[in-house]
Design a protein that fits this description.
The structure holds two protein chains of two kinds. By secondary structure, chain A is an alpha/beta fold. In chain A, 32% of the residues lie in helices and 29% in strands. In chain A, the strands form three sheets. A six-stranded mixed beta sheet of chain A has the order 5-6-7-3-8-9, with helices on both faces. Chain A has a four-stranded antiparallel beta sheet with strand order 11-12-10-13. A three-stranded antiparallel beta sheet of chain A has the order 2-1-4, covered by helices on one side. Chain B is globular. The relative contact order of chain B is 0.13. Classes of the chains: A alpha/beta, B mainly alpha.
């Protein structure tokens, strides 16, 4: 498999604090990968390493290149959106488009213009005159024009209302994603991206605790809802996570015989948000 | 190349002061001249112009000017042009000082560095585009602004002469356009070369500092000068710093930035190439230029400027949105 990104033993320290701790992962073409974790888990540090913005230890290849040396070359094939605050406030929309066309060899201005035509953004407006939602639309319009192999999104919908958040991901999947490109998304709001992901990487305290295709979650993890009187017996099967829900106990098990669990109650595949909580708060250690 | 030109344009888009201040200066020159003509000129009996011992009205002043010998007329006309140029240069050099200090710090402060680094543009291209603004674009802006300011002044002075029944030829015959133009070009080129290490230092501070870089950019040289002078260490660092740090602001002497170039003049007591209110414009000879270019201090400065610029490029590689 010809991976777009390969990380082996990726490690980053800020003084004595280890932000990323010997992380290993690969991202193949045509995948939509969610890198999720609580604040300070190491998501943004991992992205910054991929983008060649920070020094790190370990091996990291992006499109077969070393991002510490070849950031500018990597950016020919990569788009990046951090939260909406990173667009320069002083720039006019037409200036931004001109800048992209002049600096990006694979930029197709007509695609951005087509996208912008369906918004209320005018080319004469400055970024500071746009609402948060419009800034995200503008950023998306730019991304549409870049013929990139990979799109990296760092909390792209931070501060947006639910309408814009939903619209953002809908447009992204309908108009940008084409099964040749890959998308790497970090977000807190896992439930919003759950339906578009092909892979999930959950990171906590600098370590990746879960890294698998979404389709494999049902193979490896099982959720059990059981009456409290049966919970003690089920607990002996070593759930990775447990919580109380009214008069029931909810447990998540990893790599267990589902038939055995059915004796105790209702079994199902856990939702991503539940798995996320289990991975962070539970006993699962990757 | 196209992307580098766009990077230069992006600097001009962002730093509106590089356009707004020259325009403001030109408007100020225009309004000053108009005020002089319509307020001073129409109130000749109330507001007077001092010419040393005597005080006289505008009409009398033009008459006085017409009776001066050609050399004195030339000094007044060209001196006005060069003084205007010096003021414009000084103001825009102050703008350049703050531009360079903000150029690599500002993008971290407002977090736009994440956007700029998402473009396929190298750190070298980015830093060099900012340096190009300082060493090429700002001197060109100074030159054009000075030229336009002098054109405005000469045009309105011509009108004043005509309005007072004097020929404008009286003014234009003494206007040394080639001399003042060459003077400006020599001055801007020489000062850009001489102060290049300071520009590199400012870029370096802008990339290096996690607090507003003006503190470090000024404090470190000031402390070095203070320590060297106070303890009479005699390292020579005070002289090296003091002859470069003024950045050419208020300087009108073509040789004053290089002791090697000014040395023969100092020994003979002759006037340095430049402008003098008595002798007028004196352009450098080929020998002066060669002496300047042969000065080891000039080349040391260029090497130091390149070193600081290289350091700024290297530092920007690892800069993200954290200050």
């Amino acid at each position: 498999m010809n991976c777009l990104i390969t990380a082996k033993g990726l490690t980053k320290n800020y003084g004595r604090f280890r932000a990323v701790d010997h992380v290993n992962f690969q991202i193949a073409p045509g995948r939509v990968v969610g890198l999720v974790g609580p604040n300070g888990a190491g998501k943004s540090t991992t992205l910054k390493a991929i983008l060649g913005l920070i020094k790190y230890r370990g091996e990291l290849e992006v499109f077969g290149r070393n991002p510490r040396i070849d950031r500018a070359e990597i950016m020919h094939d990569m788009s990046y959106i951090s939260d909406v605050a990173s667009l320069p406030e002083w720039i006019r929309v037409d200036q931004l488009l001109e800048l992209m066309e002049s600096t990006h060899p694979s930029y197709d201005l007509s695609k951005s213009l087509n996208f912008l035509a369906r918004t209320e953004i005018r080319k004469s407006q400055r970024v500071k005159q746009l609402s948060k939602g419009m800034k995200t639309q503008l950023h998306l319009a730019i991304v549409m024009g870049i013929n990139a192999r990979m799109l990296v999104l760092d909390e792209p919908t931070l501060g947006l209302d639910i309408i814009y958040r939903t619209e953002f991901y809908d447009q992204l999947m309908n108009e940008y994603f084409d099964h040749q490109r890959s998308i790497l998304i970090t977000t807190h709001q896992i439930e919003e991206i759950e339906h578009i992901l092909t892979d999930i990487m959950i990171i906590d305290k600098g370590k990746i605790v879960i890294n698998m295709p979404i389709d494999d979650i049902g193979i490896h993890f099982t959720q059990l809802k059981t009456a409290k009187e049966s919970a003690e017996q089920a607990r002996k099967l070593n759930p990775v996570f447990e919580k109380d829900l009214l008069d029931q106990a909810v447990m998540i098990f990893e790599d267990i015989d589902v038939e055995r669990l059915k004796e105790f109650g209702e079994v199902s595949t856990p939702h991503l948000a539940e798995l996320f909580v289990a991975a962070i708060k539970g006993t699962h250690h990757g | 190349m196209a992307s580098f030109i766009t990077l230069l344009r992006r600097e001009l888009w962002e730093h509106t002061s590089l356009r707004a201040i020259p325009v403001t200066l030109l408007v100020f020159v225009l309004l000053s001249n108009l005020a002089f003509i319509f307020v001073v000129g129409s109130s000749a009996n109330v507001i007077t112009i001092s010419t040393g011992d005597d005080a006289m009205s505008l009409n009398n002043y033009i008459e006085y000017f017409a009776q001066l010998d050609a050399d004195k007329q030339s000094v007044i006309v060209n001196g006005t042009m060069i003084t205007t140029g010096m003021i414009i240069k000084s103001i825009l050099l102050i703008v350049m000082f703050f531009y360079l200090l903000d150029s690599l710090y500002g993008e971290r402060k407002d977090r736009t560095i994440l956007f700029w680094k998402s473009l396929p543009v190298s750190n070298k291209q980015t830093v060099l585009s900012k340096l190009t603004i300082a060493v090429f674009i700002i001197p060109v802006i100074i030159f054009i602004t000075t030229g336009l300011a002098n054109l405005i002044t000469l045009s309105l002075q011509s009108y004043t002469f005509l309005h007072n029944q004097y020929s404008a030829d009286l003014l234009w015959q003494q206007t040394d356009i080639i001399g003042t133009t060459m003077f400006s070009i020599f001055l801007l080129i020489q000062q850009t070369i001489w102060y290049f290490p300071v520009m590199g230092w400012l870029l370096f501070c802008s990339a290096w500092c996690r607090k507003p870089p003006i503190i470090v950019a000024v404090l470190i040289p000031a402390m070095l000068v203070f320590i060297d002078s106070s303890f009479a260490l005699g390292t020579g660092i005070s002289e090296v710093l003091l002859e470069r740090l003024p950045l050419g602001i208020m300087s009108m002497q073509l040789g004053s930035e290089s002791s090697m170039m000014s040395y023969p003049y100092n020994m003979s007591g002759q006037q340095l190439p430049g402008f003098n209110m008595v002798a007028g414009i004196s352009l450098p000879s080929i020998d002066d230029i060669l002496r300047f270019l042969g000065n080891i201090k000039v080349w040391m400065g260029i090497v130091i400027g390149i070193f600081f610029t290289g350091m700024a490029i290297s530092l920007r590689r690892w800069r993200d949105d954290s200050l």
